[in-house]
């Protein structure tokens, strides 16, 4: 199965892995719909692409916006969502608003996207959602990240059963140098994290957006891959 002439929606296309996926899908010949909350970052992604594309501003955590977005985009073949809102720290210190943002990005947004887009996806199409390694490797301060990533993986599997033959998969990245994702740590702590990960992971490096984009294209185009969580983490499970 190829992406030439297929319509691919990327929610989160304005940065990091989503930007990498949008560019790779475009290079593979897809018509790409770039979605996210900030027009300027989506337009910056569009400038790195040559093929047919649409830029659509979308807050995927608002159901009415997702419904209108799906109506406007119409029939499509594949949808990828990298939507994420970071929340870190011991549970007792977390404000409810930050917990709610993390739920909205990793749980409500995928639910709304599947609910409103599934009647418009082609039968050989796919949804690919991004979870993360904290689902299976928690640390102090990751309770909500672990919860939403694990929940997203369970939802993806359940919907792969419910929507078959449409395929749904989750990709679980390890530590990826994707731009701003780790900025909240500050430069020094980020470099320490990257060095520690590279030292321990069997791949001996952190991931790149190209690694994750290649895995996403594989998930989109392999017709026998569904209901699975693809760990793309340099072997972190063995650390
Ligand atoms: N990078 C890593 O090391 C790593 C590790 C484990 C898991 N992951 C997961 O991999 C995925 C991609 O990560 P990344 O590094 O590319 O992160 P990123 O650059 O922060 O990408 C997240 C994207 O989601 C968009 N977004 C956030 N809330 C949204 C909303 N309500 N509606 C629409 N778009 C929204 C953001 O754009 P706007 O703010 O402009 O909307 C942004 O483009 C995420 O799900 C992340 O949790 C990454």
From TrEMBL:
The keyword Oxidoreductase applies. InterPro entries: NAD(P)-bd_dom_sf, SDR_DHRS6-like, SDR_fam. GO terms for molecular function: oxidoreductase activity. Keywords: Oxidoreductase. Pfam families: adh_short_C2. Belongs to the short-chain dehydrogenases/reductases (SDR) family. This is SDR family oxidoreductase. It comes from Corallococcus carmarthensis.
